[in-house]
Structure to design on (736 residues):
């Protein structure tokens, strides 16, 4: 008997052949293996098509379509932001260099902004509003550029692609940074030399005896500033010593930071082991510092905010002194223009010597260290956090059930997840810093930061879902059992991470790594499936 | 063993649904607004799905679904219970969507009247879809259906989403039954080809 046509099998698979013909076809299928396989495959195909079409409309398909649309808009906004950033960068070239710290689109401007915002939130000084206003043009720019991108994106595709092409060209034609780079065993700017650009100096010893008109960025073991830096100073060193002047702000991360008669035009932000402001040195505006030991014998124009293991203040502080410390002594001839706010553990931790003048009030806040387990608020907060995580998990379960299941399933390959998660945990912040340091990459950096933070938050939810399922077994009736498992898992994590003596912290880190790794792995798998 | 009680349970719940549904339908036929709302609530997602597959975009599908349910109060008197309500509703919805497609100016010749014999029925260049059970793949199938020309998309949606028979589809589209069979067959061939492209495979 000859085989039937493929069309006939298609009709047969649809169950639409007249009974008699169907019998003949089935008889043939019983004998002919290739035809049987074909007909079976066609029947299976019908099921696949039916199943694919039957999936709820408002669910997966439209959601991912929305996500695609949003991703497109994100890219558009990033591109427009980058272009606007470039334009502003060119504009900023026209500004005097020593006003650079006010320009929020330069790295130092952003750093200044960041520290100022932190300080402002803590301090609330209206004088700091001036720094904050620098954020407003930036915000406006984001809004305008975002709206512009949206409008552009709604136009026909030809315009869209030409926008992409133009922005790509602009990206390629990046303007010069005006950056001078010097590296070597020892880098010296001699007394009679002037560097007009921003100077990037790295080496064992960096000596600045001359003048740097731009910023100074250093990564040396020892840095000595005897000359003048007109911009800001960014320093990662073992030892930073300033006896000359820095007209902008200083951002330092060093073991020892010392001002020997040096002068800072704006602020000092320092994170160090030892900070010394020798008599005769002066910071015109604020000092924000964290250190093991600090000696402030120079003068500070505005506020001094200090987190210090031990602190000595003997200089002149124009406004307030805020200090959180293990012990502080104010020695003559210290003079505080405003208030003194001290946060200490015992009243005896603050000593105010003879001859110290304080213009405002002195307030000592005694913070008693008690076990957090004895406070009711601790449990309330933990419960709220647990509930929040649970609700987010619920939302994810509803919105992206399959993705959620895949990620929490990936936790079971714990070796892979743990390793990958640890790498993501460490590498992402580095990448963010690198992105943010380049003007173009700033939107990308912010985007990455948000994704990273979301990932950190979501990690425990995925691990929680996995643990819950491991405890309760595979849920039979879907919805409610899965939620119960998620809740139990999250509760377990919340309890385990509170174990004292560092065990809880280690468990917490493991949970974050596991979750991040699984998330990363699944995202990679999805990406692979999509591009395959 | 496990399948038996499950099937029984489903049948029972279906019957209960049917009893409830019949009562609602009776009230709806008498013009009870609440009953019509109930019908809208239970059938709107399915009807929206059919419109979506037939019309291609969610916006037009939502408009169409709304119009269909607005019309329902007028046409429900014509429902005689000889076929399941959902099937009847799908026929109404299908007709409505076909009307919309015909009205779209350039798609007047949406369903071209060709003799079934004139359509070449070649042996498929691709094998039937068989490993497409993953959700991502299901999405790909939906996207592929969406990109089919209306003359293939409409019968495909009516057959595999609406579960209508060849005869019912033929009646809706005003064509002969063999033509429907051919269109559906060709539609699936097209589908395979575009999915093969999606998977980056050479159609072999």
């Amino acid at each position: 008997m000859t085989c039937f046509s493929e069309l006939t099998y298609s009709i047969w698979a649809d169950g639409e052949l007249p009974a008699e013909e169907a019998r003949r076809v089935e008889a043939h299928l019983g004998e002919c293996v290739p035809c049987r396989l074909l007909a079976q495959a066609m029947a299976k195909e019908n099921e696949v098509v039916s199943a694919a079409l039957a999936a709820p409309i408002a669910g997966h398909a439209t959601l991912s379509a929305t996500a695609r649309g949003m991703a497109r808009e994100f890219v558009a906004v990033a591109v427009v932001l980058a272009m606007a950033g470039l334009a502003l960068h060119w504009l900023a070239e026209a500004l005097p260099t020593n006003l650079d710290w006010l320009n929020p689109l330069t790295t130092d401007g952003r750093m200044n902004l960041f520290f100022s915002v932190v300080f402002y939130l803590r301090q609330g000084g209206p004088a700091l509003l001036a720094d904050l206003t620098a954020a407003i043009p930036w915000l406006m720019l984001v809004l305008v550029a975002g709206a512009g991108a949206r409008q552009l994106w709604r136009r026909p595709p030809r315009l869209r692609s030409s926008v992409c092409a133009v922005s790509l060209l602009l990206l390629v034609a990046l303007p010069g940074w005006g950056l001078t780079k010097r590296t070597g065993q020892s880098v010296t700017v001699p007394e009679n030399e002037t560097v007009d650009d921003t100077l990037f100096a790295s080496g064992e010893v960096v000596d600045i005896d001359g003048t740097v008109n731009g910023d100074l960025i250093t990564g040396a073991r020892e840095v000595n500033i005897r000359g003048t830096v007109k911009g800001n100073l960014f320093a990662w060193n073992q030892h930073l010593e300033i006896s000359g002047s820095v007209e902008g702000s200083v951002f330092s991360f060093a073991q020892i930071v010392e001002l020997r008669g040096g002068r800072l035009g704006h602020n000092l932000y320092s994170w160090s082991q030892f900070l010394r402001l020798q008599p005769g040195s002066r910071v015109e505006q604020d000092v924000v510092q964290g250190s093991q030991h600090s000696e402030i014998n120079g003068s500070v124009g505005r506020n001094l905010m200090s987190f210090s293991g031990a602190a000595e203040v003997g200089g002149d502080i124009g406004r307030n002194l805020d200090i959180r410390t293990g012990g502080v002594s104010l020695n003559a001839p210290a003079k505080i223009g405003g208030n003194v706010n001290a946060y200490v553990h015992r009243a005896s931790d603050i000593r105010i010597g003879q001859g110290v003048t304080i213009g405002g009030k002195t307030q000592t806040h005694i913070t008693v260290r008690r076990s957090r387990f004895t406070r009711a608020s601790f449990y309330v907060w933990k419960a709220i956090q647990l509930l929040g995580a649970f609700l987010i998990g619920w939302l994810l379960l509803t919105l992206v059930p399959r993705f959620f299941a895949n990620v929490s399933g990936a936790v079971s390959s714990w070796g892979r997840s743990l390793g990958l998660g640890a790498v993501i945990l460490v590498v992402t912040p580095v990448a963010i810093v690198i992105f943010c340091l380049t003007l173009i990459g700033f939107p990308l950096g912010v985007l990455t930061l948000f994704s990273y933070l979301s990932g950190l938050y979501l990690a425990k939810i995925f691990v929680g879902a996995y643990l819950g399922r491991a405890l309760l077994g595979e849920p039979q009736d879907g919805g409610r059992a899965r939620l119960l498992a998620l809740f139990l898992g999250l509760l377990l994590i919340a309890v385990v991470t509170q174990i004292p003596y560092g065990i809880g912290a280690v468990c917490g880190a493991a949970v974050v790594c596991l979750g991040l790794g699984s998330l990363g792995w699944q995202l990679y798998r999805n990406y692979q499936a999509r591009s395959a | 063993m496990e399948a038996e009680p499950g099937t029984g349970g489903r049948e029972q719940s279906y019957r209960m649904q049917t009893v409830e549904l019949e009562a609602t339908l009776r009230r709806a036929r008498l013009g009870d607004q609440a009953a019509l709302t109930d019908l809208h609530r239970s059938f709107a997602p399915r009807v929206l799905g059919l419109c979506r597959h037939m019309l291609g975009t969610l916006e037009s599908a939502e408009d169409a679904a709304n119009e269909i349910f607005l019309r329902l109060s007028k046409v429900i008197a014509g429902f005689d219970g000889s076929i399941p309500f959902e099937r009847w509703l799908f026929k109404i919805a299908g007709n409505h969507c076909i009307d919309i497609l015909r009205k779209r100016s350039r798609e007047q010749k949406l369903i071209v009247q060709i003799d079934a014999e004139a359509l070449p029925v070649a042996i498929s260049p691709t094998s039937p879809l068989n490993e497409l059970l993953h959700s991502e793949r299901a999405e790909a199938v939906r996207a592929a259906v969406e990109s089919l020309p209306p003359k293939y998309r409409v019968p495909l949606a009516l057959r595999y989403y609406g579960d209508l028979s060849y005869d019912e589809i033929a009646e809706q589209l005003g064509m002969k039954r063999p033509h429907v069979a051919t269109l559906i067959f060709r539609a699936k061939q097209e589908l395979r080809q575009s999915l093969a492209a999606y998977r980056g495979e050479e159609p072999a």
Notes: The CA atoms of residues 99 and 185 of chain B lie 23 Å apart. The helical segments of chain B are 3-29, 33-55, 58-75, 85-103, 135-147, 150-161, 166-173, 177-198. Residues 1-16, 110-122 of chain B have pLDDT under 50 and may be disordered. The interface with chain A takes residues 45, 48-49, 52-53, 58, 61, 121, 123-124, 127-130, 132-139, 141-142, 145, 156-157, 159-161, 165-166, 181-182, 184-185, 188, 191, 199-200 of chain B (CB under 8 Å).
